[in-house]
Known about the structure:
Layout: E1 2-6, H1 11-22, E2 26-31, E3 44-48, H2 54-61, E4 66-69, H3 81-96, E5 100-104, H4 118-125, H5 129-144, E6 148-154, E7 156-158, E8 167-169, E9 179-181, H6 182-191, E10 201-206
Parallel strand pairs: 1-2, 1-4, 2-3, 4-5, 5-6, 6-10, 7-9
Antiparallel strand pairs: 8-10
Helix pairs in contact: 1-6, 2-3, 3-5
Amino acid sequence: MNLLLLGATGLTGRQVVAQALDAGHHLTAVVRNPDRLPPLDDRLTVLVGDVADEQEVASAAVGKDAVLSTMGTGKSLTSDIVSRTVDALVPAMHDAGVDRLIFLSAFGVDRTYTQASLPQRFFYRTLLRKIYSDKQRADRKLLAGDLDVTLVYPVSLTNRPFTGTYRAGDLFDFTGMPRISRADVAHFMVAQVNDSTWSRRIAILTS
């Protein structure tokens, strides 16, 4: 399939790139700095652009079967890049005639906050408060729209190897600080391209 990826140079995004190519997909990545993602395969096209620019994203999305987003805030605790990306992405996908979206968010955003353990809630409402507020705005817009979206809500991310034994669900009763590897999250996201199980739903991911 022909896929568009936003956020390809991040730690999770790089996992998605590798696994999408391994799965035989053709991938286009929109990045600000192409040096952070040199072409690794003739099925990978790297475009320099702004993910918050509607026209640039629409142009990149033409002819694609699905869009994946692993956009994050990097080291910033105050960035609004996620909601700005969604503001551009929704009309861009409509313009390009693409309906399927697999979008990385985070556990603890919006209604999943009530499932969090006490240690998790502490971080969500203090250190991560502004980031999670921005993610909530983005997620609510996606859920209220008409795109065929799967929102991916992983618990705390690690750089551990792929396991394939992670769990996806609607409801968990967490204690402590559960974790999941970025490789497992990427595996789930790439799999959703050909799977409608989590269509128009939120999928919570944990190891």
